[in-house]
Amino acid sequence: MATSFDRSGKGKIRREEALAYHSSGRKGKVEVVPTKPCGTARELSLAYSPGVAEPCLEIAKDEQLSYMYTARGNLVAVISNGTAVLGLGDIGPAAAKPVMEGKGVLFKKFADIDVYDIELRANDVDSFCNTVKALEPTFGGVNLEDVKAPECFLIEERLKNEMQIPVFHDDQHGTAIISGAALLNALEICGKKIDRIRVVVSGAGASAIACSKFYISLGVKKENILLVDSKGVLYKGRTEGMNPFKEPFAQETRARTLADALEGADVLLGLSGKGLVTPRMVQSMARSPIVFALANPDPEITYPEAKEARDDVIMATGRSDYPNQVNNVLGFPFIFRGALDVRARAITEEMKMAATRALAALAKEQVPDSVSKAYGGESFTFGPEYIIPKPFDSRVLLWVAPAVAEAAMACGAARQNIDLDRYKDELRKRQSRAHEVMGVIFAKAKKRAARIVFTEGNQPKILQAAQILKEEGICEPILLGHPDPIRAVIEEMRHNELRDAKIIEPEQSDLFEKYTAAYYQMRQRRGITPREARKRMLTRNYFGAMMVREGAADGLVTGLTMQYPEAIRAPLEIIRSREGRKAGGVYIVVTKNDFKLFADCTVNIDPTAEELAERGDAVVFELRDGPRRIAREGATRSRARAAAAARSGDRRRDGGGRRHARRGARCLPLLAAHRRSQRLRLPRPRRRQHRLQAHLAHRPRGSDRPRAPRNGEAGQRPADQRQRRCDRQPRRGHGAARPGGRVPVLAGANRLRRKSWALCACASACAMQSDTRSTVFARTRLMAGLAPARGPKALFSSSACALSQKTLPTPGKVAIPRSPKALESWSR
Which end of the chain has the lower number of beta carbons within 10 A, N or C? Predict the structure, then answer.
């Protein structure tokens, strides 16, 4: 088995620690959490009686509607009778419950699938099958777990024939699917053909027989597979210890022991027990032997022993402390995810094969830094010590589930067809709240592939990020650096999308002299000489900033290999900030139910209250620049139409201008960094007074809503105008919230300019590849910046905290002038 208990102490898990983990606080490891609001009497009436009657009546008409009105489509039953609990044997159903709860945790953690664990006191096949079959209306799929052989074969086959939902015995097929992917890649490394190899399987239980059948479907010839159990090799004529499931694998052979069978063999698949394979047996195998020693907690032969016996061996085990861990968690969560999302009737051989080939293909891809960090910073490259993805590789969901869903639709097992591109986006959103938030930015960026210049184009992390961006259609990357080394790295890392990417060496570019002259003209009054201008333009950071300023690029990503002050210096000098505003940084912090913006946390040291208010206003202005621009342009066009209509005598066209003008007024920025449950009431500001200043200065007791003047008081307005005061509620849908109402955190964010979306999307992809800070700039404004932070993080824009899925990092020290005058000059 690929997963088991380690009671030997090698896993460094103490008995007291394990017991405390399961018993402390809320007992066990799982709970049921409602997904709909139920805080009021009305909501409870909708959740139960009488509102629940309506979906019941609809499901009574069509049973398939249960997938729409209930959680059935995302609910799997993990069912066991406790007769073969991992490495513990027949311990009974009650003792098996902690294992089944743990299985549910893995389903939820890796694929966001809900699980009810069910332990049955049913050891005979009939009672077990009848009970599980009766549960079919409740679940979208059934995962059989820890049922002993040979009953497990009969139970699974019978349930698959009698039920119309997927039934999957992970102990049989999970190991087969994962080890099959490892086998395909190991054979590719060795240069061997799958139809010519000899395979020896140590063990003849449920997993061994399932793996042997699956290897045959992969292309291994049946006559080239030898199974060895506790009685020896399965050969023709043997009667001791045989059963109908072992009989098909009995071969005509003179081999009688495991040592005999391994002589000249190409592959050893160990699914038996500790220490059954000796170094001498490995030495007797063919060239470049493949050894999968999957017994747990201790394999048939340890990794060091096998490597000492044969330095050309490709080794895999079920342990996480050795390379190439064959872990079932790479299979069952994602296979069920794909099957549930197309409402499959069964998990077919085609779906299993698709999962295997997807895992094998993923292992050949470049491994992101996020995976390396999960394993102590170790780097992974496709080869003898990395033939299968790591369990904590988040990309497995995006590769395996779509492959399984596609295979289900192709073979006719699916009840509904889905769009695979949209499905992959939905899977990304399932992975985290941050992906859900950033999905809007990705969608906006894809509408117009902006030209983004990467100043550190020779860095592998930047190239990997650029590959992802180009492949996803988010941007057109422009790489700065020496072309020959960059193309060599592209070929080495197999970044096929970047083979036709634009690579510019600043000194050899036709634009170098033009940019040098433009920079000198721009900064000559600030002590820049022609020689210094030329020297700085040789720096990629300055050259890239000039590309953005001159319109040769739409955005800039920089800062991977330099300190934060140096990263933002060139863009601040060349791109500049908006007229009348200073540069600032923004964090976006994403929580489970909300997300918030924090400014300024990176650039300006010890700002005053007025400066903070200005920064907040600038952030909201960037988010709502779209509605303002639409209002201005719409009003201009409408006035022109109205003038033309007046000349022609048609007055009906005048309404559009007033409508756009009102829309612009309603889209005035509101400083929003509150929870959705909180209310922010903003009084009307006085002339030349900021909204936040008015809010801080006006704090009446009881309620902070300004009172309207009464009759006879100063400031009284006619009755017909009282309803048009400043707190009038605007129409919905224009990105603004009324004072006194709920203020959304990113109201109006959907109006961001396309270049800004592209930059945020580029930053998101780059964040997945790096553990350092960087900076992103738009052509018309400074977008964002990040200070150094503790621990693994990475972001290149205002979307930093959203993608790192961590709390707000602590800003580090930034070398910025501290005198007000020098700071103002530097920021400008």
Answer: C
